[in-house]
């Protein structure tokens, strides 16, 4: 699973980890991406969506299928 949102295309960010002695080493930040079932053009698809897009309502969640409800 890639660390990017398929709705807003938010991806990995890079920067420095800074120690107490101010030494800098490279590091990366990944967005909070969830794999959810969403409606795209009336059909349910699984997409990698960041939590900000979910919270802001940029995607419409698909209803769960019967097999996932019974389990």
CATH class type: Mainly Beta
User: CATH fold name, please?
Assistant: Ribosomal Protein L24e, Chain: T
Strand content: 35-45%
> How far is it from the N-terminal to the C-terminal residue, by CA?
25 Å
Helices and strands: which structural class? alpha+beta
Architecture (CATH level 2) name: Roll
Average per-residue pLDDT, rounded, comes to: 90
Radius of gyration: 17 Å
Shape: elongated
User: How many separate domains make up the residues?
Assistant: 1
Helix tally?
2
SSE string = EEEEHH
In helices, the fraction of residues equals: 10-25%
Sequence stretches where pLDDT stays below 50 over 5 or more residues: none
Q: Give the neighbour order of strands across the main sheet.
A: 1-2
- How many strands in all? 4
The biggest beta sheet reads: 2 strands, antiparallel
Q: How would you describe the overall organization of this protein?
A:
This protein is an alpha+beta fold. It has a single domain (13-63), classed as Ribosomal Protein L24e, Chain: T (Roll). The protein has helices at residues 51-56, 66-70, and strands at residues 13-18, 24-29, 33-40, 43-50. The strands form two sheets. Strands 1-2 form a two-stranded antiparallel sheet. A hairpin with a 5-residue loop joins strand 1 (13-18) and strand 2. It is elongated and about 55 Å long. The mean pLDDT is 90.
């Amino acid at each position: 699973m890639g660390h990017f949102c398929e709705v807003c295309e938010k991806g990995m960010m890079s920067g420095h980890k800074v120690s107490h002695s101010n030494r800098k080493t490279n590091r990366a930040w990944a967005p909070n991406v969830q794999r959810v079932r969403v409606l795209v053009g009336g059909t349910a698809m699984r997409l990698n969506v960041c939590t900000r897009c979910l919270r802001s309502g940029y995607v419409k969640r698909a209803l769960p299928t019967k097999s996932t409800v019974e389990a």
